[in-house]
Amino acid sequence: MHIFDWDHIRHFLEVVRSGSVSGAAKQLGVNQTTVSRRITAIEQHLGQALFDRSGHNWVITPVGERLVQSAERMADEANTIARYAMAESQALSGKLRVTVADACTQFLVMPALHAFSQQYPDVDLEVIATWELLDLAAREADIALRSTNEPPPNLVGKRIAQLAYAVYGTRDLLERVRSKQATADIHCITWVGDGHTRPPWIERSFSETRRVYRTSELSMMVQMAKQGTGIAQIPCALGDTDPLLHRIPARYVEPGWGLWVLSHVDLRTTARVRIFKDFLVEALEAQRDLIEGRRETDVC
């Protein structure tokens, strides 16, 4: 084996990033034995250990650390070559990775996914639902539906709309707020680790509330609000389409970010990337009033 075999270096880098063989295997879509063999092959070629094997976690050695920078340069070059090759592809077939974040963007992307798969069945869609900002330059995804006000300079795309938020709760909680009953007894739901003991929408609009619940997932927040656990600031695209949720009058609602459809600049001419982006943009633009919170009119 040549030491600069990209397949082996790729496995090495993934173990470095994941910190374990099992984590690397999951990311690479292979079994753990394959990862171990690739690392062992490099170590045998060098005559040096790259990792200290300690239980499930592999700790990189000083020799391994010295290889990381060169390996990452190889990764950048390999990804550039792959993007250039994909950019020249006009085939409407093959894998297409689309990354979406929370339950709101997952909901919004569904019409485009369905329409595209019906018209182009030879394209294998892979939808990655994650809060992580996947690296499109490293081909972790081909297209991203992302909430941001400033996309990275190596990505190109279109700003669709400004995500609007409102405060939502059950009909019972709405009536209690309208009738100015004790709002201190109405609980609020917000994010885990949002950086605030009491975020601005709670402090400015429901300062009397005695209890604040927290969750790490938007879908859980929506379910808690539907169950009457409390009120929550939720994207209008989700809140206005759920018959169990009603907008709660609030003095202040935190502003949302822009919603963008993005891909790497090198893939702007790739047929399946370009066509799917067109599908996605069309589907989202048809929902712009919903995304920007103009569908609901009775309570603001």
Outline of this structure?
By secondary structure, the protein is α/β, with parallel strands linked by helices.
List strands and helices in order, with pairings.
Layout: H1 6-18, H2 21-28, H3 32-46, E1 51-54, E2 57-60, H4 62-87, E3 94-100, H5 103-119, E4 123-129, E5 143-147, E6 155-162, E7 165-169, H6 171-178, E8 188-191, H7 200-205, E9 212-215, H8 218-226, E10 231-235, H9 236-239, E11 246-247, E12 258-264, H10 271-285, H11 288-291
Parallel strand pairs: 3-4, 3-5, 8-9, 8-10
Antiparallel strand pairs: 1-2, 5-12, 6-12, 7-10, 7-11
Helix pairs in contact: 1-2, 1-3, 1-4, 2-3, 5-10
Portion of residues within helices: 40-55%
CATH class of the largest domain: Alpha Beta
Mean pLDDT: 86
CATH fourth-tier homologous superfamily of the largest domain: Periplasmic binding protein-like II
Question: Could you explain the architecture of this structure?
Answer:
- This protein has 300 residues and is of the alpha/beta class.
- The protein has 3 domains: 6-87, Winged helix-like DNA-binding domain superfamily/Winged helix DNA-binding domain (Arc Repressor Mutant, subunit A); 94-154 and 257-290, Periplasmic binding protein-like II (D-Maltodextrin-Binding Protein, domain 2); 165-247, D-Maltodextrin-Binding Protein, domain 2, CATH 3.40.190.
- It has helices at residues 6-18, 21-28, 32-46, 62-87, 103-119, 171-178, 200-205, 218-226, 236-239, 271-285, 288-291, and strands at residues 51-54, 57-60, 94-100, 123-129, 143-147, 155-162, 165-169, 188-191, 212-215, 231-235, 246-247, 258-264.
- Strands 4-3-5-12-6 form a 5-stranded mixed β-sheet, covered by helices on one side.
- Helix 2 packs across helix 3.
- It starts with 5 loop residues before the first helix and ends in a 9-residue tail after the last helix.
